[in-house]
Design a protein that fits this description.
By secondary structure, the protein is an alpha/beta fold. Helices cover 37% and strands 23% of the residues. It is globular.
């Protein structure tokens, strides 16, 4: 079985695959201070609870945007599985051209997400990650990475607002009953949630116009993922697909290409 590991700033996602089928998936909080042994025990407990053993895992592929944790999971693969983890980066032949200034700056998460989106939905496409940051990845009809945009995520925006304004406080990230708030909580929810909707819609509109070769903007697929993707998709009509497993699917596809 293949273990796919997606390490982001907020969460670490694990996907256990038998060929092309995801058998199990788990999400744990990203804790930079955890050691190799601690993460191994977490993974062992999760696998055991699902009826699997670590010995069931034949190979490991990793995407990481948290540099301190990358060697932690590489060591985990070697010590507990006797494997060299495949760590995705821009130098690997994944069938993607990186039509940007500095490909080495591109996070591996954006690489595997682009691979999965093109394979599952086709291109051209705009893939939006609603996570720590709200990230826009743009791919061509051929699946090449064209660039994108990065904006502060919903949680960052909400925390900045409550911490910088002495009379404001933290609120639940849920859409209010209307944009016209009638109390402080609704005012903040309107500004944070619906304000973010405006940001997303504005960038979708601009990015669609800048994709080379697109004559009909309706051809551009809009795909969402990330921890807050299912919250935001119902209030952003432009979003056509929501797939919380997009990074793990991209890792599976990357493994299939690299290992044949």
């Amino acid at each position: 079985m293949l273990l796919a590991i997606d390490i982001s700033n907020t969460n670490i996602k694990f996907g256990l695959y038998n060929s092309t089928t995801m058998q199990r998936h788990w999400v744990v909080s990203t804790v930079r201070q955890r050691t190799t042994d601690e993460y191994a025990m977490v993974l062992n407990d999760l696998a055991h609870h699902a009826g699997h053993q670590l010995t069931d895992i034949d190979d490991i592929i990793v995407s990481s945007v948290v540099p301190p944790l990358t060697p932690v999971f590489q060591e985990l693969a070697q010590r507990y599985f006797g494997k060299e983890a495949i760590t995705v980066d821009h130098t690997m032949d994944l069938g993607i051209k990186y039509l940007i200034d500095n490909p080495w700056e591109l996070g591996s998460d954006r690489i595997v997400i682009s691979l999965a989106a093109h394979h599952l939905y086709g291109g051209p496409a705009i893939i939006i990650a609603f996570s720590t940051a709200t990230t826009f990845d743009v791919i061509s009809a051929e699946g090449d990475f064209l660039g994108g945009a990065i904006a502060p995520g919903l949680v960052i925006s909400a925390e900045a607002l409550s911490s910088a304004a002495s009379r404001l406080f933290r609120v639940d990230l849920t859409p209010p009953r209307a944009a016209l708030g009638k109390n402080t909580i609704e005012n903040m929810q309107s500004g944070i949630i619906f304000g973010h909707v405006g940001l997303v819609q504005g960038l979708i509109s601009r990015l669609r116009k800048e994709i080379p070769g697109v004559t009909d903007e309706s051809e551009v697929k809009i795909i969402a993922h990330g921890g807050l993707g299912e919250l935001m998709a119902p209030i952003i009509p432009e979003i056509q697909h929501v797939n919380p497993f997009l990074p793990l699917e991209g890792l599976r596809l990357a493994y299939a290409r690299l290992r044949g």
